[in-house]
Amino acid sequence: VGTLPSGVDVEIKQAIIDYAERKLLPTDIGFNVEGFEIGEDVPPGRLYTPVNKTIGAYGDSYITRLEVSRSPAAVGATPAALVYNELAVFDASNITVVINV
Asked: What ranges make up the beta strands (E) of the chain?
């Protein structure tokens, strides 16, 4: 919600991918840029970092809902659980961004 430009969904998707791959550029405003370790679950709250970093450049925008899952059938607010030898990998074609005005 807020004043987001068209095409910001692409920026958000790339920020999530960059975050997971530890490529989110550091900032001086306290964002966690560490991504995920092997075997580390993916809680929705951790993905606020790349999304907020992106939309923070556009004024009064904010997130109203964020969900993650290992498959479309399992979307929800609980962490996407990984086993000890898995690494969270994100693909833009599997990320959905919905912007409400």
From this structure: none
